[in-house]
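Step 1: inspect the first sequence and its tokens.
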Amino acid sequence: MVKSSKALIYSLRSMSGLSTALGVGFIVWGVVIQDPPETAITIGMVILGSLALFVGLWGLLISILGRCCMAVLLLMTFLVNIGELALTIRLMVDMDSSVNSLVENTMESYKDNAQAAASDVADKGNNPDNGRRLLQARKTKEELTTEFTNDLQYARYIFFVLALIEFILIITTLIIMWKRPHANGIDGDEEDQLAAKSTMAQIQLEGLKSSVSPQNGGNGSLYSTDKKSYRSVTKKMTQKYGEFSHDSAWSNSGKKW
């Protein structure tokens, strides 16, 4: 099984976690501004939030279970993020048009509700006090403008910064996936095999050191002829490299291969 590098896993989790948080944030923001969402700005917030929440949870799942369809995930996250940036930039550049749209939509809903209440009184004989209470609960155009402006004024900057951070994390994840997708730059199976070979080599090296150590009965020479296994090794090395050795103990003994 292919193992993803830790850098890729951490980057993916950061990106997905922020996408999930932004998704929830956009949905709540849209509903707080207008419930139910009826204008382009609030509907766009809810749609983008839902998509961001979906890709964020998908990314968290991939970071836990392993690399699967990561290219598709990054593409979807990138597209959703571009939508988030476009929406927040539009609010920063031209917030007044969005506020006016919200105010006009709310005033239209006031008229529709008033007409519906009057129709109920005329057709069904309902209590006219219900219509009066409805009219009293209406806000003026100036009050609505102030309310919607406050809802958008500071939140747009916060969401823009978070969306920009998410964009940076997407690019970072893409670079890591391209440059260092696997642990130690190799597949998981190869990594396990190399680790096993390294452990075995270390054990053999320790055994070799122990066998030639004077404390364990050896003569301190790597090419000691006291053991049959090492005489066989030295014989093969002699056949390959000739009668020469850098081992001082062997050279000083005056022995030959």
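Step 2: inspect the second sequence and its tokens, then contrast the two.
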Amino acid sequence: QGLDQAWSIARAVAAMAADSRMSTSATARGLAEILSLEAAWELGAMAEGRFGVGDPVNVLSRAKGRWMRDGVVVSVLAEDAFVEDGTLRMPAGACKVQYDRNSCAKWIPPISLEAEIRPADFEKDDAVSVFCRSMGRWMADGVVLDVLPGPEFVDGLDMPAGAVKVAYATGNNAKWIPPRMFRDELRALRAWTPEDGDVQTVMSLVREVAEATQDALLAFVSTPSAA
């Protein structure tokens, strides 16, 4: 029920955002409905496990005997299910990941997650998405300028080992982000193909629509006649 509803709303709002004849308030109402659905799914994803669809990760390639830095989670099971055309049974919480330039993919059961995938790390020149607090939105044009190998006092700030300096907003802004803030302010960018029909794939679409029409929502909320 939630999946069908989300697809319907997401497509409708995306069409609204692209149609200049649609009023700001109509687009914003649809966006607000999507955001309420996303909030519910986010809570569910957080309760179910550590990783969610779209999360950038490092994946252990057993064939190559090393960690691949370009992995992404493309599916997470909410319940036990047969996957790979019914040939493999996986428990709830299992993750499917793509990696090695999307040339490889595998399912990882919850018991093996800690050994086979890790949250993405960052290196100089990595493409990233950065949360801009002043704008209240994610900027997808970020790039890593520096990564600290150890604690250091830089640009007037005490930064721990692993802290990352990023440039974003067409290079006009830059800031340091400590590791404890990575989840809230920094995302590694990945090119990937979502699993068709996955509920969390809808969440990714929801985010894209929400961010693309955020200005419309703010305009609607600030309009006295909106109520």
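Step 3: confirm your contrast with the notes below.
Confidence is low (pLDDT under 50) at residues 37-48. The CA atoms of residues 98 and 105 lie 4 Å apart.
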